[in-house]
Structures are given as structure tokens and as C-alpha cells.
Design goal:
single chain; mainly alpha; two-stranded antiparallel sheet; two-stranded antiparallel ribbon; binds fe (ii) ion
Amino acid sequence: MPAQANKHFLEAVVNLSETQDIALSEDVYSEKGVKLLARGAKVSPAMYAKIISHKLVKPIEVCIAAGDPPSGAMLVRIAEQVLEELPLLASICNWSQGRVNPVGMLSKCKFSASAGTLLAVAFSRSEHAARHAVMTSLIAMGIGNAYRYNDSQLMAAMCLGGLFHDVGELYVDPAVLGGAKLTATQWMSYASHPIIGAALAREVCGFDTTTQRAILEHHEYADGFGYPRSLRAQAISPAGRILALAEILSALVQKPAAFSRIDIALKIMPGEHEPELVTLVNELLREGRSAKPEKIETLEHDVNANVHSVFLRIADVLTVYDDLVAKSSTTSPAVKTILDEAFDRFAEVQKAFASTGVTSLPMLDGKLEGDELDESRFEAHCVFNEIAWRLQKLSRELVLKAGKMGENDSRALLRMANALAGTAEHEATIEESSNVAVEPS
Ligand SMILES: [Fe+2]
Ligand SMILES: [Fe+2]
């Protein structure tokens, strides 16, 4: 961890100190050996300036202890609430047949002072942050159970990795986290949160390497279109692969008609997640679905307009790609390679879009009514969101690559990124999972 406290993290600590005691667990020294604060002192807003203006001998993260960090009992309370609300979540967390009880694992969680404080600060951001962490942990343990329940190291990594996977977000400007649209620079800053989270897991929490990697890889996808390192398939650890899938599912599982949404999300781009894991999730979900059929919502928006907008975006990408290839002598060979890879991926997304048959659904409008009409519109809506989400992901990937290149090369990649995102200036939404990037028009 850096010798100087992170501004955003420290602000979050100070905010929490207004509702919960946070004491210094040891003396705090500046890098020059000056004692700044004494052990036992309570963190207060007045301390902020003193801490932020010095490089410290020890990171502030390991010198503070929250008075009331999340306990096993508190985690169980949140878990029981979400399991009660979301029957599909309960299906994924099925732990019969000698498997590990995910809620039981949460109940046994005991954190060091530094780890507990970190989690307390992360949970204090919002009720959603705490629920999301617990749900991701439950789902990861549920999939882990079906995958290798007797691998205790993996199961512990699922439990802790789920709870702590987004702690790196504490180090990102809240304006970035709260923004509906991000600039390229903001997106690059957000994309660092898994790296920061893994460093915190190692240096502040003392978690093992399986858990550290799970946190580092919780936005990596098997097809290489994740971040921060764009790892592929087996280069991602088993714990990382499961956590990435759990992260996606934790957003989808709380939406209306979650089964249908998850079904489409998992089918639309084969290769995004490890096939064995997808099969396991499908098995768990099928058992849950048969218990209670779900109600498909009636959508009021115009499916034709949504499908049309995807077609326009596809046409724009094709034009921009052709133009950039024609001008490839003005950019470095690396740009051409990146563009070709992106175009191959884009072609896969296009193929997935065509294969869903959604392009023919608008024609059915007017001929269908009642439940059949609702179902066809709902399916088109899910497909549209999933496709738009993949184009957005591909766009972000190019933005991250553009950030590492010279100005001319960067401009070319950003142009392609803009076309993929369907924006004139590059912007990216920060939503982490599918089905949320684009709202119906
Ligand atoms: Fe997350
Ligand atoms: Fe994340």
C-alpha cells in the first residue's frame, strides 16, 4: 500500500467515524519519524488533514480499528434477508448432499482488526454495497459447492473473495462511482479497483493467494474481454472464474424475471465463462425455477426502436473500422492488431445478435397479444441489453488499451471505442454486469 493515505479511502473512514468509533491501533509516524498521532486516539474529521499531508511509515489501513466491524451474525442477517427475498438465489446456494452451508460459512467469519475495518468502511458506503458483497459471496460459495465443495481453500476464497471483491472501489473517486457515464480517464481509474482490492487482500487483510487472485480476477472473462489484464480461460484461476460469474449473477438475480434474464445472458456469448461452470449454474437454476414459475413483466417500450438502434451502431462500427484500416499506415502496427482483434470479437457479438432471432420479433408485434406478446417483447429487451452490454465491454477494452498508447494511436482506438459504445465522445457506464448497461429507449 502507498506510504501516503488515499484521499477517497480516508474520507470514507472519516465519514464512518461519525457513526462508529474508529481508534488508532498503534502510533502513527510520518516517514521522517515524526509521531503524528498516538495509539488509542479516535479518528475524527480533524485528523484528516494531518494524515493526508504526510507520507507514513505504515499504511493508515493497518493502523485503524473500527469499534463495530461486520460480524458473522451481521453477515448472516443480510444473507437470510436476501435469501428470503430472492428464491433463485436460494437455488444457487443449495447446499444439500454434504456440501458446505454458505450461510454457515458466513456465520464463522472472523476478521483481523484491519480486515474488519476495511469491510466496515466498504459496507458503510450503502446498503446496496453490503448486500451486493454478501450476495456475491453466497453465489460464489453456491457455485463452488457444485464445483469442488471439498476444496476448503477454494470455498474460503469464495466466501472472503465475495465479501471483499469491491473494496478497491473505496480508492476510486466517488464522483466516478456515482456517475452514470464515465470519461475514458475515469473508466481507467475505475478499472484499477480489482488491482487495489488484491493489494488490500494481501497487505491489509493477509488473505491467501487463492483469495487475492479471486479478487484480482473478478472482472476477467474466459474469452479475454475482461479487465484489468484481459486474461483468457485457464490463465484465470478457478476461484477468479467462479467469482466473475458470481458477480454477474448477483446483479441479475435481483431483477424481475431473473431466470429468463440469466438464461439469455449465459447463452448469448458462449465462451465468456467456463462451460463447466455455466452447466453447473444452469443445473442449479433449473431446480429453482421448477419450484415457482416467474412472472414476465409487461414492457411498454418500443422493441423495434431498440433493435434498430443496435443495427445503426453495427453499421457505424463497420464504417469506422473500414476507415481506420484504410488509414492504418498513419498508426503503429500494434493498432492494426488491436483493431483486428476487436473486430473479430465484434463479429462474434453480431453473430450472437443474429442467432437469437430477435431481429424477426418486432414483426410479430401486432400479431401477438397477452402473455405471448409480453414474452416476445421481454426476450427482445433482454437480448438487446445483453448485446449492448457486450459492445460496451468491447469499447471499454479499447479505451484501456488506448490509454497505454501514443496520442495518434490512442485517437484511432478511441474512435473505434466510441462507435462501439454508440457515443460521440467516449463515455462508459460503470455498471459491472450484464443487462444493466442500456435502459430501454
Ligand atoms: Fe461487484
Ligand atoms: Fe468489481
